[in-house]
Amino acid sequence: MSDAMLEARFAGRLGAFSLDAAFDFPQNGVTALFGPSGCGKTTLLRCFAGLEHLSGGAFSIDGEVWQDGRRFRPAHRRAVGYVFQHANLFPHLTVRDNLRFAMKRAKGENAGRFDELTSLLGLGDLLERMPGRLSGGERQRVGIARALLSAPRLLLMDEPMSALDLQARQDIFPYLENLRHTLSIPVLYVTHAPEEVARFTDHLVVMREGKVIGAGPTAETLARLDLPIAHERQAGIAVDATIADIDLKWHLALAKFDGGALWIGDTGKAVGERVRLMIHARDVSIALVENPKVSIVNRVPAIIRQIRRSEDPSVQIIALEMGNTVIMARVTARSAYLLDLKPGMNVFAQIKSAAIID
Ligand SMILES: Nc1ncnc2c1ncn2[C@@H]1O[C@H](COP(=O)(O)OP(=O)(O)OP(=O)(O)O)[C@@H](O)[C@H]1O
């Protein structure tokens, strides 16, 4: 991933709502926009697309000014791909013709990428289908391909998974992850789901009431306990690891990461292969001594970096450092008190489960 960053600022009023959002995001990578309902995420995407014109706005991409104090490039002259909750395909056209239509609008600029993009999104067998005969997940994959075939310089995704059921979301993730590694344009991805943030994004912008309250690389920003995302029930952090050993007898694989190692279910990955693990805060507990007499296999030495009371007064969230890796634990306030947990303490993170996500 190149380190180049883009700068955006959109400020102004829409009726009673006031937006004042300024942030940097990577030119090459996926940026999550996260925040409660009504905080202005969709409005912000609409500003990027040129569908809203707020007086205080500034954004340029690839040397083109889309907005500044004097200039405003209208929506139809911005190369933006937009993916919504529902794909809204033309019902009377096949998948192939829906995609061709998008390419035509982009004056065929991305025609050479038709095969690449349809294969990346697993659409090969669906091209002759009518949209009415696609599942929700398939329709979203077509919607994403359609947006990309329009040769965008910026891809805007507004909660693309939120209308899908759990299974469809699990099915679509590998495609999104493929895209994340392949795309060389910036993607702004609006979501309410902390798991999507951890799995799929490189950079995170947290919003509240029209303002940016925190932004930075995803793993680092997720572990900031002053931001509300760390306190969500689904909060977790994705950790990059390498398979270091296989225990054939017990069907386990040892995944090593910077700062520790975890036994996970053996999924057939060979020693030396890279994996990405999702560790949810709710699956991590803390022990002061290493206790072999528990069923939890993974007990990793860690240092407490920070402790914060959650909105739920019975819960505390703890950030734990293991080398350069930071994970979170969600423990009861009573346990934190009884164990007298404090920043700087050496403890053991007992990790009940870690799912392979890539
Ligand atoms: N054109 C408009 N005129 C007046 N108010 C507007 C306009 N567009 C949006 N708003 C208001 O701006 C606020 C932010 O809306 P927005 O849809 O951007 O929030 P959001 O963070 O995307 O929410 P959600 O997660 O529920 O989609 C809301 O209070 C909305 O009613």
Based on the model shown, name its key terms.
Mo/tungstate-bd_C_term_dom; globular; 8 helices; 2 domains; six-stranded mixed beta sheet; 358 residues; 20 strands; Rossmann fold; alpha+beta; molybdenum; P-loop_NTPase; transport; binds adenosine-5'-triphosphate; OB fold (Dihydrolipoamide Acetyltransferase, E2P); ATP binding
Explain how this protein is built.
Belongs to the ABC transporter superfamily. Residues 293-358 form the Mop domain. By secondary structure, the protein is α+β, with helices and mostly antiparallel strands. The chain folds into two domains: 5-231, P-loop containing nucleotide triphosphate hydrolases (Rossmann fold), CATH 3.40.50.300; 236-357, RNA polymerase II/Efflux pump adaptor protein, barrel-sandwich hybrid domain (OB fold (Dihydrolipoamide Acetyltransferase, E2P), Beta Barrel), CATH 2.40.50.100. 21% of the residues lie in helices and 37% in strands. The strands form four sheets. It has a six-stranded mixed β-sheet, with helices on both faces. The protein starts with a strand and ends with a strand. The model has no long low-confidence stretch (mean pLDDT 92). The protein binds adenosine-5'-triphosphate. The site of adenosine-5'-triphosphate has 11 residues, from helix 1.
Distance from first to last alpha carbon? 17 Å
Q: How many DSSP H or I helices?
A: 8
CATH fold name of the largest domain: Rossmann fold
The structural domain count equals 2
CATH homology-level superfamily of the largest domain: P-loop containing nucleotide triphosphate hydrolases
Query: How does the major sheet shape up?
Result: 6 strands, mixed
InterPro entries: AAA+_ATPase, ABC_transporter-like_ATP-bd, ABC_transporter-like_CS, Mo/tungstate-bd_C_term_dom, ModC_ABC_ATP-bd, Molybdenum_import_ModC, Mop_domain, P-loop_NTPase
Protein name: Molybdenum ABC transporter ATP-binding protein
Domain Mop: 293-358
Domain ABC transporter: 1-234
